[in-house]
Every structure is written in structure tokens, then in C-alpha cells.
Fold:
Amino acid sequence: MVVMVLEAVPAGLRGELSRWLIEPHAGVFVGHVSARVRDRLWKKCCERSRGGGVVQIWSSNTEQRFRMRTYGDTRRQLVDFDGLQLIRMPVDSGGQAKNKGQSKPASSRQRA
Structure:
């Protein structure tokens, strides 16, 4: 199984990926392809991302039963911790997780 998440990439790239994988949600692609196809899709996404971000997750024979890789500007960072792949949320200088691309907290929203 392969999962690919594309952030801020050209629509044409998403269209090309839909030839190989299904898109159950905008920018999220899922499917079952060979390792060769998976690697070629990865290469194509990295070459054509134009400043966007790409995350690829696939089944593997590891402790976690999957592997991950990222390319470009993604909202999360991939970290290797003693052989385990973990995700880290970037923090700003004040120690708070960055709220990039997400809605404001309820306390700061204006009421209609």
C-alpha cells in the first residue's frame, strides 16, 4: 500500500497521480503499486512540486510496518529516533506549535 500527500503543488501533478492512485480527499492519494512505480511517482512529484510539499508512506518490513519520506515545504518534519520514524510539529520562537494553514483558536474568532 502507498499513501501520498501533496501540499501546494500544481493541479497537473495531482492529475497525473490520479492515473495510478485514487484521491479520497484533496491532495491525498492511496493505492497499491509496485516498488518501481512507487519510486517513479516519488521522483516525478519531487521534480514537479514547484515549491510545494510531498509526503510518501508505504508498507515495509520494519518494526512500524511502514516507511515515510518527505520532500519540499511540508507542515511537519520527519525525524528518525533510534530507527523509528516520527513526525515533529515545528514550533515558533514562543514554544507554540505553528498554526500554519489552520483556523484560529475559538477565543480569537469574531462572532457574527
The CA atoms of residues 34 and 80 lie 25 Å apart. The longest strand covers residues 53-59. The chain is about 20% helix and 35% strand. The first helix runs from residue 11 to 17.
